[in-house]
Write a structure and sequence with these properties.
The complex is a heterodimer of chains A (78) and B (335).
Chain A: E1 2-7, H1 12-28, E2 32-37, H2 40-45, E3 53-56, E4 59-63, H3 69-77
Parallel strand pairs in A: 1-2
Antiparallel strand pairs in A: 1-3, 3-4
Helix pairs in contact in A: 1-3
Chain B: H1 3-16, H2 24-54, H3 59-67, H4 71-84, H5 92-100, H6 106-118, H7 121-131, H8 133-156, H9 165-176, H10 192-227, H11 232-237, H12 244-252, H13 259-271, H14 276-288, H15 291-297, H16 303-331
Helix pairs in contact in B: 1-2, 2-7, 2-10, 4-6, 4-8, 5-6, 6-8, 7-8, 7-13, 8-16, 10-13, 12-14, 12-16, 13-14, 14-16
Classes of the chains: A alpha+beta (78), B mainly alpha (335).
Chain lengths: 78, 335
């Protein structure tokens, strides 16, 4: 079970990112728990400056855009 | 080269649709067709080209760079990077905290955030094509000045006193600890293919976000163009009494648009005889003082700081309006 945090202050792109992470994980049969993190303090802890950003199991793996499908697959399989 | 779009509009509106160039509808429609086709063609080409060039510019490196400059240069750099760095307003909070927790003074961070909505490549392209290079240059100088001036005043007031607690603490921690000598984040080496992919995504992203604004803006501009008689503003508002400028700033406040939507309106207002400074004051107020942005900043600032920022911006816009009205006989011989 992977914990996926989507960091962002609640714009549309962050919602899209969360949805796509979930969808791709389901297709690949990987169990995930996707959370949307909107609290500025938490985002600051990750030292992220451009959102949406993605952290998997507490480790920042992507920031600044909605990741494309290929990138999501790589992230989830890693 | 841009005459192509005038010809296209001539052909479509006067030729194909058979409208009379002297009629209100004909002249509005001509304005609309010419401007939308011209703007979209320019946007597609220029956004792509500019994105190719700046594919390797990221906020981490911008921050690293600003952090190492003295304060005075910092304001200029903050505003300058605000103008050229692509960034969506939904990122303003993480950006704000990223800068603040790196010990960058509030005024410099805000210079970035003030200038960012006013100047970007889309605004510059549109201004250049609709109002000429002199006007574009003045607009860029003013946009930077609003950011730099706003930031300096904010620091003179020691605005950081009124940050939310957690942000104030993060700033304090950073300023008390010795400056880190961490190396600059690596410049990613990008192949032409990476750059193309980035530019393509940027193009899709930006055009997807702004096309509605362009249509609305040009639509409004076109209606003004066709239906408001020439010289209407001069006849009805006088030619620039001092109170016109504050009135324009307040009129722009409740309106919220990005620069893309407002520039075609600006073109029409100026053609119809509204003084250039008054027009600019109206537009800056529409573009740079937006309520959604302020509500977002509330997450990291106390009301006092927000109010201070708001007042500084309003005063800045008024100064810009008055100053440009005063100088415009020397600046723009063409208008």
């Amino acid at each position: 079970m992977k914990t996926i945090e989507v960091l962002g202050t609640g714009c549309k792109k962050c919602t899209t990112t969360a949805e796509q992470m979930e969808a791709v994980a389901r297709e690949l049969g990987i169990e995930v728990d996707v959370k949307k993190v909107t609290d500025p303090t938490a985002i600051m802890e990750y030292q992220v400056m451009s959102t949406p950003a993605v952290a998997i199991d507490g480790k920042l793996v992507h920031s600044g855009s909605v990741p494309d499908r290929g990138k999501i697959e790589t992230l989830l399989k890693a | 080269m841009l005459e192509v779009f005038t010809w296209l509009a001539d052909w479509l509106v006067y030729g194909l649709a058979g409208l009379d160039p002297a009629s209100k509808l004909g002249s509005s429609l001509h304005f609309f067709v010419e401007d939308t086709t011209k703007i979209f063609a320019l946007l597609v080409v220029m956004i792509y080209v500019i994105a190719l060039a700046r594919a390797s510019l990221d906020l981490e490196r911008v921050r690293h760079y600003i952090q190492r400059k003295n304060r005075l240069a910092g304001y200029g750099l903050g505003a300058g990077f605000g103008a050229i760095t692509p960034f969506c307003s939904c990122s303003s909070i993480p950006l704000f905290l990223g800068f603040t927790s790196a010990g960058i003074p509030l005024g410099i961070t805000m210079a970035f955030l003030f200038t960012s909505p006013i100047i970007n490549e889309v605004a510059v392209i549109m201004l250049w094509s609709l109002l000429g290079w002199e006007f574009t240059l003045v607009y860029i100088v003013i946009g930077m000045a609003v950011g730099i001036g706003g930031g300096m005043v904010l620091d003179a007031f020691q605005g950081e006193r009124w940050l939310k607690d957690f942000a104030a603490k993060a700033y304090q921690r950073a300023t008390e600890s010795p400056p880190s000598d961490a190396p600059a984040p690596e410049v990613p080496s990008l192949t032409l293919k990476d750059r193309h992919a980035f530019a393509r995504d940027e193009l899709k992203e930006i055009v997807g976000r702004i096309w509605k604004w362009v249509i609305i803006g040009v639509g409004l501009g076109a209606s003004l163009h066709g239906f408001v008689p020439d010289g209407w503003f001069a006849d009805n508002l006088g030619s620039g009494q001092w109170w016109n400028v504050p009135a324009a700033v307040f009129a722009g406040l409740p309106l919220y648009s990005n620069a893309t939507g407002v520039i075609p309106v600006m073109e029409s207002l100026i053609i119809k005889g509204l003084p250039v400074g008054t027009t600019l004051a109206f537009c800056m107020s529409t573009v740079a003082a937006s309520f959604p942005e302020f509500i977002m900043l509330k997450q990291v600032m106390q009301w006092r700081l927000l109010t201070l920022i708001f007042v500084i911006l309003l005063i800045n816009f008024m100064i810009v309006g008055w100053l440009i009205n005063l100088l415009s006989p020397w600046l723009f011989s063409g208008f």
